[in-house]
Design a protein that fits this description.
The protein has a domain of 78 residues: Dna Ligase, domain 1 (2-Layer Sandwich), CATH 3.30.1490. It is 38% helix and 27% strand. Strands 11-6-1-2-3-19 form a six-stranded mixed sheet, with helices on both faces. A five-stranded mixed sheet has the order 14-13-12-17-18, with helices on both faces. The chain has a four-stranded antiparallel sheet with strand order 7-10-8-9. The longest helix is centred in the last third of the chain and has 27 residues.
Length: 430
């Protein structure tokens, strides 16, 4: 029997990352065999704005990962973000069907379907239905009610909602490549899989995945996802501020931002390089690609430009936490991940603004090409997609992807030139 690879494609505002992994039959460990991260085009604030450009970028990333892995992929899990992401908590109630009162898988499915049945705007659809807890008669806090006895079964569920238009455009970009969309996963949920510990989820924690154009927020309470949101601000805003403040190009500003973040990391590990700027010294911008030999104060860059933008980002995160109503139930604090988490002084500023414990999170679960992806916060979502795919393969009967019939058809059709034909067929299907 041929082992199917686990594939995650992270389509972000600044990069498109493809991760291909295989599960070891002996140890059940997951080994990364192919990885590629290339600049994205046609994507802005985690939404597709130019389909043709996006397809080109995704194609380049997928092909590079396939070459490294030495195999071709037919289906993948895709992340979805953007400010159109919303969430709500819902409750479903059903009567237990068995005369003896024993709860079965069928009852659980019915109560989840009941929680899912909420009125939504025409432009939104449900991405995830994540059970938070069950209630059997008067007993609360049940995680798995199957085989328990009762008359009334109640479920509290967290619904992650997405824009129908965004979902269709994203799906179209992937199916044009001849790749079946095995599932769409909210970016915050994917990052949580790779970065958060079980203890943090149980205690209550806030995850902030700071990407290029957006920041995904996931609040976990009692081991379950309780709130999801996406803010239309990210690390690119810091780069833009530096470019405007220094009157330099975006490429130079990005290099300066990375240097400042790397410098702090080097100082903390005692691996600082000789001949570099001192903590309070000047930076020679010509080293980063500036045409003129301009020197600027590090203090000016950090305190005058970067810090105010980070304060704004964390103030917006604080507002989102307050609106969720779960602010007092997150004693584990906040975990920051994503490429933006490498910004200089980000943990200090976060602690100051939000007044809660702060941890910088990096993925650490996968094996294989660990030098490329392990301990690198920018790969949090792509690694999370692989872990989500792994869990979904184990309990495939519980995966909600919708349109499984359509997916079954598209997976069997030839690749490449038939992408548009697939879309044509799909529009006649329910």
């Amino acid at each position: 029997m041929k082992v199917q690879p686990l594939v995650g494609i992270d389509i972000g505002s600044s990069k498109i990352t493809t991760l291909i992994a295989l599960r070891s039959e002996e140890t059940q460990s997951i080994n990364v065999v192919g990885v590629a991260s290339l600049p994205s085009a046609g994507v802005k604030k985690s939404q597709i704005v130019d389909i043709d450009e996006a397809i080109k970028s995704i194609t380049s990333s997928v092909e590079a990962a396939e070459r490294m892995a030495g195999l071709s992929i037919s289906k993948a899990f895709i992340n979805i973000g953007g400010s159109q992401i919303a969430s709500k908590n819902s409750t479903g109630v059903v009567a237990v069907s068995e005369p003896e009162g024993e709860i079965t898988d069928s009852d659980v499915k019915r109560v989840i379907d009941s929680a899912r049945a909420v009125s939504l705007p025409a432009a939104q659809e449900v991405l995830h239905v994540l059970p938070r807890q069950y209630k059997v008669d008067s007993q609360e806090g049940i995680k798995d009610p199957v085989n328990m006895n009762g008359v009334r079964l109640e479920a509290e569920a967290h619904l992650v909602l997405g824009s129908t238009t965004s979902i269709r455009n994203l799906t179209k970009c992937i199916t044009e490549l001849g790749i079946g969309v095995e599932g769409l996963v909210y970016s915050g949920l994917a990052a949580s899989e790779s970065v958060l510990t079980a203890t943090e989820k149980e205690l209550g924690v806030v995850l902030a995945d700071i990407g290029g154009g957006t920041t995904s927020i996931a609040i976990w309470v009692d081991g379950s996802l309780a709130h999801s949101a996406v803010l239309p601000i990210g690390a690119k805003n810091i780069t833009n501020d530096l470019a405007i403040g220094m009157r330099l190009g975006l490429d130079v500003a990005e290099e300066v931002k990375k240097h400042l973040g790397d410098k702090i990391k080097a100082n903390t590990t005692g691996e600082g390089r000789q001949g570099e700027d001192s903590k309070d010294g000047d930076l020679d911008l010509s080293k980063f690609g500036a045409e003129e030999q301009v020197k600027t104060s590090r203090k000016t860059l950090v305190e005058g430009i970067i810090r105010p933008r980070l304060q704004e980002i964390f103030s917006m995160i604080g507002e989102s936490i307050k609106e969720s109503g779960f602010g007092g139930r997150t004693p584990a604090g906040i975990v920051i991940t994503g490429g933006g988490s490498k910004t200089v002084e980000i943990d200090t500023i976060c602690k100051r603004v939000l007044s809660m414990p702060v941890r910088l999170g990096s993925p650490h679960t996968l094996n294989g090409l660990v030098d490329d992806v392990r301990r690198e916060p920018a790969y949090a979502v792509s690694e999370g997609l692989i872990l989500y795919a792994s869990k979904s393969n184990i309990i495939s009967s519980r995966v909600s992807g919708g349109t499984s019939f359509v997916r079954g058809i598209t997976d069997k059709l030839p690749k490449g030139m038939f992408g548009r034909a697939i879309e044509f067929v799909k529009q006649f299907l329910p």
